[in-house]
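One chain shown below:
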Amino acid sequence: MEKYDYEFSQWNKRDVNELGLFGYPYFDHYWTENERWAYFIYADHKLAGFAMVNNLPEVDDRQTDFQMAEFFVLYKYRRSSVGKQAFFKVLELHKGRWQLKLHPDNLGSVHFWNRVINEYTNGVYELVKSYPRTEYNDGTAGDIFFFES
């Protein structure tokens, strides 16, 4: 999680705490609460990333069943379809209405999510750029995908 937060800090401009860590306040909740799910992504029997899903909407003015809270694939496994396969598997495990927020300056993420969501949904999704009340630490409003699995 720290590697993910470190990488993401180039876009959201988040600082480390006094211990030199970013910390993730909801991390333990994924193992103690019923409506949060954490998945490890493996490639060739090696840890390649993770996906964290919950039922808490990014935006409260839209109906949702699930949102992708965090998704990370190590550099080594990017552009190898590992992320796409993991995302599709998560969607199969959680059927329903989805929200997925991304930082518009994270261009790798923008390209990945545009491609895989379009492929999975056959183009049936909505993308709202700069959705109100979705600001990251740097003040940038998030872009939100809405789709169904």
Remarks:
- The mean pLDDT is 93.
- The first strand starts at residue 36 and ends at 43.
- Residues 29-148 form a domain with the Aminopeptidase fold (CATH 3.40.630.30).
